Structure formats: C-alpha cells, structure tokens
Amino acid sequence: MADERFETLAPLFAERGHAVIAPPILQPADIFLDLVGEDIRRRLFLTSGQDGVDLCLRPDFTIPVARAHLDSGEADRRAAYCYSGLVFRQRSGELGEIAQAGAECIGRADRFAADADMLALAVDAVKALGCARPAIRIGDEALFTALLEALGLPQVWRRRLRDLFGERSRLDHAIARMAGGGAPRDERLGFLAALEGSNPDAAHAIVEDLLSIAGISTVGGRTAGEIADRFLEQAALSSGAGAGPQVAAALSRFLDISGAPEQAADALDAFARDEKLDLAAPIADFRQRTALIAARGIDVGAVTFAADFGRRLDYYTGFVFELHGEPGEPQPLAGGGRYDRLLALLGAGQDVPAVGFSIWLDRITSGAGA
Fold this sequence. Notes:
Layout: H1 2-15, E1 19-20, E2 26-28, H2 29-35, H3 38-41, E3 46-48, E4 54-57, H4 62-71, E5 79-88, E6 97-106, H5 111-128, E7 135-140, H6 141-150, H7 155-164, H8 168-178, H9 190-194, H10 200-213, E8 218-219, E9 222-223, H11 224-239, H12 245-255, E10 258-259, H13 261-275, H14 280-295, E11 304-306, E12 319-324, E13 334-338, H15 342-348, E14 354-360, H16 361-365
Parallel strand pairs: 1-5, 7-11
Antiparallel strand pairs: 2-4, 3-4, 5-6, 6-14, 7-12, 8-9, 10-11, 12-13, 13-14
Helix pairs in contact: 1-5, 4-15, 5-14, 8-12, 10-11, 13-14
C-alpha cells in the first residue's frame, strides 16, 4: 500500500527537486536514544547485532536520511530527498508498523523560504492524497528559546523548559513550580541542591563519580552522564532557584498567544513591550516567514499559530507545522519542521540548515480529512 500511495506523490516530489532515498530499516540504537523525544524513546523496537552493537528498527525517517546524507558527501551541500516506507514504534493494541512518506531539504541557506516551500509541498502532498482542505497549525521553538534567553533564566531552567516544550501540561507544571506553586521541596535532594552554586562541570563530575561508585553505568538507555544531568536538573527545579512568580507569569502569557500568524505577531510585539523584553529579531523572522508562506499561495488567515505548539521530537529547533483533516482533530495527517542542529549532532561538526516533513499515510487513506 505504501508504494502505491507513493506513486501518487512521486511526480510531485520529483517536480520540486527531491530525489528518492531508501535508508536502512536497522539503525544504531544509541543515536535514537539520544536524539528522539521520551515518547518515542519508550516505544523503540530494540535488538542487537552479532558484534553486540545495539540496534533498533527505524522509528522515523529524518535521522536515517540525515545519516545517509552525511555518508554520501559534504554535510553542508544542498540536497533534497523524498522517501516512502515503514517506521516502527510500539503501540498498545496496534501493529507497530506505520506507513509514512515524506521529504527533507538539507543545506538551504535561505531558511525562511525553505520553510515556506516545505509547508507548501506538504499541503500539496496531502491534497494529492485526497485531503482537499487541510487545517494548518504552526509553531516556532526559536521564539520560545529567545524568550528563555531574554528572561535571563539559569541554564538548568532553560534546558528543562526546552525539553518540555510542546507538552503544555508538563510545561505548565514546571512553570507552577517556578512560581512557587509546586510540591514542597524534596529534602532527599539536599546534597544535589548544595552543588548548585558550584562550578557546573565540577558538580556534574561529582555526581558521575557517585554513580560510578554505586556501579550505575546506564539506566533505561541513558548514560551515567545523562543521569547526572537529570539529577542536577531535578535539584535545581526542587529548589526553585533563579525564577519566581513574575517570570512564571510572563512564560504563561507567552504560551497562551495564538491565532492567525499576522494577529499573533502583533500579540507577540505587545507582549515584548509589556514585559520589556527584546524579542524584535525573532518576531521579525516570524513575520518574514509568514509573508513567504503567503507568497506560496497559502491563505495565512486560515493558518493557526500557537506559541505553545512544538513537535515531540528533540531534534526540532525552530519552525514546526502539522496538517490536520479538520481543525482540532487530535491526530495530524502530516507534520514536520526545522532541525538545524541535527546534522551537527550526527557528526557534521557544524550546524546545517535542514527542514522536512512526514505524512502518516494510513490516517489519510482511512478517510481522515477526505
């Protein structure tokens, strides 16, 4: 079925300059354990090779495509790919095989134009598969990251909130703790909390040494270093250091901004003025991208921006989007966004601009949005 549906999309992808790629199903597990979100990490199909290397069935296409790109030439060269096949994620009561098709664009320096082109391609692709009027939802993690920096939050808070971005209920809980509305301090974390004021590298090394003495090397796929990071973050969160009600209120107000992009940009400007924060550059970027999306023939007045919208994969860094059969429909037909840091994390040695999307073929062919 996936191949038949891809035959409908292949001419469209080829016309836009995307070459077909077929990355291997078996992938190194450690890469995905490091780079995908917790939700997918828990649902990996894991195995091992004869040499003892941990492997997994690919849970998405973006990372395998990026790895293939790195293996075949200079990391920052311009290239565009398309694909079709199965990804594998454990699902309760359902088969773990999910048919997807999609496209990736790597190396384009004109980032906002590339964002607009990929959103337009995703819209045209789902229309070609029978969804005549997809509802478009967009977000921008770069705006949220700029806000965290403008607020001057400690690094541990910035990291924790970025990790939770896109999961509003968990984000709200963390913000409530910042405001002093969370659970009472856990005295069991007293030793770790005492390390907060010390050099971060030294504190991290002490925790790693303690874990080593206890004989802990990995838990749930995480290394001792990653476990140390989590403990130190938890200690800082428990103490509430570096934040307070005013900062928490500003974060909540920002996350509540939503609406059509042009109106949302005005709301973002008003927010920055009221809070006396310098967000001029990311808001200007947001407006420029909106204009380029409109230039591709998309009715931006019908697009919904949500400041709290992020996709549940850790490698996204900026503009993100989802297409739904109907507004408010829980499961997207397609989703994607920008992931400029991914190739560096895979060994490129530098950030490389990249943006892409995947289509859940079964959701479209089952009649969603038709």
